[in-house]
Amino acid sequence: MAKLKYIAPYLCVCILGLSFQLISANSVVAKPKYLIKFATVAPEGSTWIKHMRALDKELRAKSNGRLGFRIYAGGVAGDELNVLKKIRIGQIHSAAFSGVGFGQILPMVRVLDLPFLFRDDTEIDLVHKKLRPFFAKQFKKKGFELLGWAEVGNVHLFSKKPIKRVKDLSGLKIWTWSGDPISKETFVAMGVNPIPLAITDVTTALNTGMIDTVYAPPLGALALQWQTSLRDMMALPLVHATGAILVSSRYFKKLPPDLKEMLIKGLKKTMMELTFDLRKQNKEAIQMIQDSGLKIIPIPKGKDLDEFYAVHDRVARKLTGKIYPKELLERVYTILNRPN
């Protein structure tokens, strides 16, 4: 669901102390000739920033100080739409985007945000691998280079009453991110008229009773403390939220060939490590959420599970031709070995 535009706020998790040791006395003073200005809403100290700082250190060392990042963390450069504007005028060169940014740059990528599309991590990784060359080509047409997929994680429903079957959503006051067509269509397909709000208004809406159901990766829910206002978490993922690191093609073209290769290889390795860490931490977050008193509602079986998967079919058909072409959806199904 929106990557459901998730990606961003839910990255503020697992605060870690960073000991960023500079490579040499020269690196303290000298600014790299090629300094990539990178923006993300992930806060300082988060797992995301820990990995990006490590990559920056590695690139500066391997390039003899020629290549590095200037990282604008915690949304100081603005939200994804603001950052996108800054990239287009050259103030920022690169950023981590989720569905918010994708929807503005290349809407068809949102096919990966369809509800109940993936069954496990193996399917997620397979589709990302198979479709990366295609999406990289499409992003290039829009003036961006796809440097790597960025993990956000599985998104779950958190509520004040158990959700075991689709009909259990009836009567719930469900939040949806304002302006996100996929999350809206998903809840409508489940018979609910969601309440659109900005992410910054969710906590207040929970406290006042305006809403009683939200969606988030476990790490995000824990970081935002949403679980303190709720009672249950649905074990069946609603969607897998995918993000990506993009860099302006205009800036990327300025890099010498060796630095381009170094950047691509470095980010590939970093994103693999980040994905591993975040998946592990999301599992730990589920245990912490359960220990805090929330009940984890088991994945439904039989007809009840089929009803949720049928929601995917209805949403996929509704948005075909509007957000992504039919051929792309069929290609995803082919990779997953599912009937079109």
Could you characterize what this model shows?
The structure is a single chain. With 340 residues, the chain is an alpha/beta fold. It has a single domain (2-332), classed as 3-Layer(aba) Sandwich (D-Maltodextrin-Binding Protein, domain 2), CATH 3.40.190.170. It is built from 13 helices and 10 strands. The protein has helices at residues 3-6, 25-29, 47-62, 80-88, 99-105, 121-141, 181-189, 202-208, 218-224, 249-252, 257-291, 302-319, 326-335; strands spanning 34-39, 67-72, 94-97, 144-159, 175-177, 195-197, 213-216, 232-234, 239-248, 295-297. The strands form 2 sheets. Strands 1, 2, 3, 4, 7, 8, 9 and 10 form an 8-stranded mixed β-sheet that branches. The protein has a two-stranded parallel sheet with strand order 5-6. The longest helix is centred in the last third of the chain and has 35 residues, at 257-291. The chain is globular and about 60 Å long. The two termini are 20 Å apart. The model is unreliable at 1-29 (pLDDT under 50).
Tell me the layout of helices and strands:
Layout: H1 3-6, H2 25-29, E1 34-39, H3 47-62, E2 67-72, H4 80-88, E3 94-97, H5 99-105, H6 121-141, E4 144-159, E5 175-177, H7 181-189, E6 195-197, H8 202-208, E7 213-216, H9 218-224, E8 232-234, E9 239-248, H10 249-252, H11 257-291, E10 295-297, H12 302-319, H13 326-335
Parallel strand pairs: 1-2, 1-3, 5-6, 8-10
Antiparallel strand pairs: 3-9, 4-7, 4-8, 4-9
